[in-house]
Design a protein that fits this description.
The structure holds two protein chains of two kinds. Chain A is α/β, with parallel strands linked by helices. Chain A is built from ten helices and ten strands. In chain A, the strands form two sheets. Chain A has a six-stranded mixed β-sheet, sandwiched between helices. Classes of the chains: A alpha/beta, B mainly alpha.
């Protein structure tokens, strides 16, 4: 059974078509990389799946239309990491992460159950945020804030992760940590990941499948190795991508000589 | 494809030791805090009943109230009506209005993730007063409940105003930024005030002075008013308190609330109805009293933190105390002339707000 099916997804704002008839599906263990130049509609796809943007077409989770789930039921299956987080109030890291448990005890009974606390503690430890648990989120760096929300996502413990530029604000050390974390997370059976990624090298290194977009339309979709062929990339980015990547990499090769 | 990634070159994860520290569970309002806040509120309430144009000793006041509750004979030589028919109903109404406006302010600041949101800055209070004035000027009443027409129209106009302001803000600025909402709220308030002034100048014999509707006053409030306020606060304040956890999620961001499974539309609708109803009731009884709902949650947030499970109950008490003290100043400052209470709250509130805003900005910089 597929975890996620997206059929003919189209998002329009007025006359502007941002995403045009995109199809993909996700089964257990898949890590789908959505790549493409700026304005290709990558983030909009994530927003549409998470019901944050109006769309036509069909989004099914475990073969059932997402609109037919109750919000907390859906949140137990699909979790989202947004690209940016602007915090207005000085919540503690712990309380932001604890919000991830909302789906397990929605409504009046605010939980505080042992299970919740255990998941929160695990999520904080996993993201290296334990020592920040009591800290005010307004005092965190961009990277620490991103890891706070990643911890919230782990506390939410869904089966599908939708990550919109997960390492947007992170320096190389955390970039590597986050990708390693997620590649560990996905090894548990019954899980899958969709991530919007800018960095093609990262996408290539970690993705099992890929969706290459340009101007809202699918350029290529399939196994990552096939999608990242020079022809496809050059077509989407309008430049010789692999030559440019090799030029960049050669800078480091010179060190070895 | 993972073969490409070299491991062991730094950037390893911190060891996922089974940590148990989660930043504590300081969620709800603790019993000790509840008692402390309640005691402060009661002390201020006693002070406000005793002090005024004629000051009464605390013991006499308490005896009169005690005897009235248990229907015991009154002590001699005390002006019982001052306490029972003038001061007590007024102080109760002031406390309940302060509590209601503050919990509304706290809820809106969380819901819209907007530190400047409040019934008066968003124009909801002006909308409510327009509704009340229309009901009075055109004699719209319910046969069984003479004052219910004013109240219902005030509530309906408060809700409509919120809808108009928020949908306008959404149309103009998709992200609904703080500044856009406040700007539209201010313009809306001005627009409504002009209509208000127009209606009052035509029906001045029936409608109270415009200062009542723009500055507010609880002069002449009755015990019946206090009961209505209490009932509204129990029902709609309870509804707001019930959504404390959802408000925390909204205060992080509406998208985050949706992603963690909050039924965003339903919660928003219920909260907007509750806020409009409370503001409508308050305005129809005491006019628009500005700044209470804006300033109280900020002050309270400094004491108990931003978690709505603690912030909202604390705002109830904080708002009651703040407005009772403001009313006391309004009564005794230029004794025997009485100031509209909104003059005092706006005066104090504007100062406090600048201080709060300055510290808030500096803390974030």
């Amino acid at each position: 059974m597929n975890l996620l099916d997206v059929k003919n997804l189209t998002v329009r704002y007025g006359d502007l078509t941002i995403v045009d008839g995109v199809n993909f599906s996700l089964s257990e263990g898949d890590w789908l990389m959505i790549v493409g130049p700026n304005g290709a509609g990558k983030s909009t796809i994530v927003n549409a799946i998470s019901q944050g943007a109006p769309y036509t077409g069909e989004v099914r989770v475990l073969e059932r239309d997402v609109r037919r789930y109750r919000p907390h039921e859906l949140a137990r299956l699909v979790g989202v990491l947004a690209q940016t987080h602007a915090m207005g109030y000085g919540f503690t890291v712990g309380s932001v992460v604890r919000l991830g448990r909302y789906a397990y005890s929605p409504g009046l009974f605010s939980g505080g159950r042992d299970e919740d606390e255990r998941m929160v503690a695990r999520a904080l430890a996993l993201t290296g945020m334990t020592r920040f648990a009591d800290q005010n989120v307004l005092t965190l760096s961009g990277g620490e804030l991103q890891r706070t929300f990643l911890a919230q996502l782990f506390a939410q413990n869904p089966r599908v992760l939708l990550l919109d530029e997960p390492t947007n604000h992170l320096d190389l050390v955390y970039q590597k940590q986050v990708f390693e974390l997620i590649s560990g997370w996905i090894k548990t059976p019954g899980r899958a990941v969709v991530s919007v990624v800018h960095d093609l090298s990262l996408a290539r290194a970690y993705g099992t499948r890929a969706l290459l977009l340009d101007g809202g339309k699918t350029v290529a979709y399939g196994a990552a190795a096939e999608v990242f062929s020079p022809e496809n990339l050059n077509c989407a980015y309008d430049m010789d991508v692999s030559a440019w990547m090799k030029t960049l990499l050669s800078q480091w090769r010179e060190d070895e000589k | 494809m993972r073969r490409n990634v070299q491991r062991g070159t730094g950037g390893e994860l911190p060891s996922p030791a089974p940590e148990t520290h989660t930043g504590g569970r300081r969620d709800g309002f603790r019993a000790g805090e509840l008692v402390l806040f309640a005691l402060v509120t009661l002390a201020v309430m006693a002070l406000c009943v005793c002090v005024g144009s004629v000051s009464l000793p605390l013991k006499t006041t308490l005896t009169v109230i005690w005897n009235a509750v248990w229907r015991l004979p009154m002590p001699d030589g005390v002006s019982v009506p001052i306490i029972l028919s003038v001061r007590l109903p007024r102080v109760l109404c002031v406390a309940l209005t302060g509590a209601a406006l503050s919990i509304c302010g706290g809820a809106m600041q969380g819901l819209l993730k907007n530190p400047l949101a409040d019934g008066s800055t968003l124009g909801v209070a002006s909308g409510a007063s327009l509704g009340a004035v229309i009901a009075i000027a055109f004699g719209i009443t319910l046969p069984a409940l003479p004052f219910a027409g004013t109240m219902i129209l005030a509530i309906a106009f408060a809700f409509l105003s919120l809808l108009i302001i928020l949908s306008l803000a959404y149309k103009i600025d998709y992200s609904m930024s703080t500044n856009t909402i406040i700007l539209i709220g201010v313009i809306y308030s001005m627009f409504v005030s002009s209509i208000l002034a127009l209606i009052i100048s035509f029906a001045s014999d029936r409608v109270r002075q415009i200062t009542f509707w723009t500055m507010g006053s609880l002069l002449g409030a009755t015990l019946q008013n206090a009961l209505v306020l209490l009932a509204a606060l129990v029902v709609f304040g309870g509804l707001i308190l019930r959504y404390s956890r959802e408000l925390n999620a909204f205060a992080v961001s509406e998208d985050n609330a949706r992603n963690i499974g909050v039924p965003v539309r339903r919660v928003k609708l219920f909260l907007l109805i509750a806020v409009s109803a409370l503001i409508g009731v308050c305005v129809s009884i005491g006019g628009t009293i500005g700044f209470v709902g804006l300033v109280t949650p900020h002050m309270v947030r400094m004491i108990v933190g931003p978690d709505h499970k603690r912030l909202l109950p604390a705002s109830l008490f904080g708002g009651a105390v703040f407005l009772m003290l403001a009313d006391l100043v309004a009564r005794i400052l230029l004794n025997p002339v009485e100031l509209p209470i909104g003059v005092v709250t706006s005066f104090v509130g504007a100062f406090l707000f600048v201080v709060i805003f300055y510290r808030y900005r500096r803390a974030r910089a």
